[in-house]
Amino acid sequence: MELWYTEKQTENFGITAKIRETLVTEKTDFQDLAMIDTVEWGRMLVLDGMVMTTVKDEFVYHEMVAHPALNTHPNPKHVLVVGGGDGGVIREVLKHPQVEKAVLVEIDGKVIEYSKKFLPEIAGELDNPRVEVIVNDGYMHIHDHKNTYDVIMVDSTEPVGPAVNLFTQGFYKGIFDALKEDGIFVAQTDNPWFKADLIQTVNRDVKEIFPIVRVYCANIPTYPSGLWTFTMGCKKYDPLQVDETKIEEIDTKYYTPRLHKAAFALPKFVEDLTK
Asked: Which residues form the PABS domain (predicted)?
């Protein structure tokens, strides 16, 4: 007998993967959590029926959350990651030696616990001495830490359940206040095939707060449609003005200095969403 996991990404479309083993299922205080081992993608974290990360393709998402912003800011010493309890973004942030402290604020401690147990290649840096892990509400942490961070990264689920507040203009205004005078923020903003309205709304809201707003894309096979967007808001520095010849090569599998600006070259239908 074969076992298959299916994520219903819309009412009419989904993806499916053959399962070797279900490692854990639990209804936490915030969401339904599952860790499964798939034949094609390896171990997979699923929250509320949505694929969050897999061992095989996780590097794309985590690298593209972290490196464009950190290579745009000239001196990112203090970095905040909201969400991201699997630890992948933290792992990438720590590849930048100028980062003195990286703070992870994850609302669901079970995500951290099971990621450490089943996804050690992703969560392996969560115990690094440069990292502070806080199990709390990221929305409230932002509110309580004004003028604190050089870069803030929002590694959230889709805008359902505990992540709903992380897609509001009030949250983006709080991020602006929590950043220093030359700070940068970046958030994952879903896909343009099924969530065009979300991308338009986020882009409009962020533009009302940040003077420089850029959208970029990456290919993530296990995310809905495979084409994923990220939105960056900057107080001072423009990612398109970065001299790519001065970006230091680091250990990556997707992001490169040449890709830094190329990722901001959007397909026309995506570009139209940002106008």
From this structure: 2-235
Of 201, 205, 155, nearest to 176 by C-alpha is 205
115 is in an annotated binding site: no
On whether 156 is known to bind a ligand per the annotation, the reply is yes
List strand residue ranges (DSSP E) for 28-77, in order: 32-38, 42-47, 50-54
Query: How confident is the chain (275 residues) per 10-residue block, as mean pLDDT?
Result: 93 95 97 97 96 98 98 98 97 98 97 98 98 95 96 80 66 96 97 95 95 98 97 98 94 97 98 95
Q: 225 among the known binding-site residues?
A: no
| Model pTM score | 0.95
Helices 169-178 and 196-207 cross at an angle (nearest 10°) of: 40
**Catalytic residue among 57, 150, 155, 205, which?**
155
User: Is 58-274 CATH 3.40.50.150?
Assistant: yes
Does the structural domain 3-54 have CATH classification 2.30.140.10? yes
Domain ranges of the chain: 3-54, 58-274
- To the query of whether residue 155 is one of the catalytic residues in this protein, the response is yes
188 is in an annotated binding site: no
* C-alpha–C-alpha distance, residues 232 and 18, integer Å: 35
pLDDT for position 169: 83
Question: What does residue 77 show for φ and ψ, rounded to 5 degrees?
Answer: -85, -40
Q: What is the layout of strands, in order, in the sheet containing 227-234?
A: 131-135, 101-106, 78-83, 149-155, 179-188, 227-234, 212-219
